[in-house]
Amino acid sequence: MDNRRFLESQNRSLFPHLGVGSFMLAETNPDLFGTEFVCLLECYTLSPIGSIHLGTGVTVTGLVPLDLKLTMYQLEHDFPQATVMATLMCAGNRRTEMSKIKKVRGVPWGHAAISNAIWKGPRLQDVLLAAGVHRLESIWDTLHVEFEGVDICKDNRGYGSSIPMVKAMDPKGDTILALQMNGHQLPRDHGYPVRVIVPGYIGARSVKWLQTIRILSHESTNYFQVKDYKLFPPHVDWDVVDNWWDKAPPIQEMSVQAAICQPADGEAISPVGNTPLKDTP
Q1: Nearest to 162 by CA among 93, 226, 248
Q2: How many CB atoms lie within 10 A of CB 1?
Q3: What is the CA radius of gyration of the chain?
Q4: pTM given for the model
Q5: Which stretches of the chain are DSSP H helices?
Q6: Peptide bond into 234 cis (omega under 30)
Q7: Domains of the chain: which residue ranges?
Q8: Residue 272: what pLDDT?
Q9: Which residues form a coiled coil (predicted)?
Q10: How far apart are the first and last CA of the chain?
Q11: 187: which DSSP letter?
């Protein structure tokens, strides 16, 4: 089965109440891991969330000395273009394995809600410097950078998230506003015309269909920053979680992990001869 058919089949099994083509949320076929280091576009994990109306540029606002309204042409031609190889993974990757220990909520990902690609676009650092944030350098460690997309989700707001300002301004952090993926124009499924890429952070922070960047004195108040993607103590469950949202830190950096892709979980193997193993870091 080719991966697009695999994704569509998986999507129907996860969300049978949704019409075909109305929604796509599915992970890469794990059989493909180990065949290519960089995932082909048609093999990439897909996770659109809300209603999408494509934008035409990006606004930089908030606690910046200079508000910016940047067109796609300006993003491509007025800033140096950086090329970054980065792996994105959903924070809920391997939920099916987690649920074997303690039942968790959310999309029942296997171990393949992860993909690696080559991204190209202006560095977020350069865009923010154009908005004058160098004048705020003494308080960078108190600020946050919020990203908001055009896809309307919870609370009638665009999907949004934030990262610390120091991460955004780290010259070694490689955070970019991606216009290309694997040498091609960014596909619509993956955030066209522009998305954020935050290497080393959970995929939820790499906001697609980006329309607004805000500099804030606090973390984003978007639902997906304050009511999702959080870590709780072991004794916290869904009966008491409402008392913990404000106490729990958001998940930002991802821990290094690895999974065996072949043989598959539960697959019977012959005790005679050699059995090839494929893993994914």
Answers
A1: 226
A2: 10
A3: 20
A4: 0.83
A5: 3-14, 72-77, 95-99, 124-130, 165-168, 223-226
A6: no
A7: 20-233
A8: 66
A9: none
A10: 24
A11: P
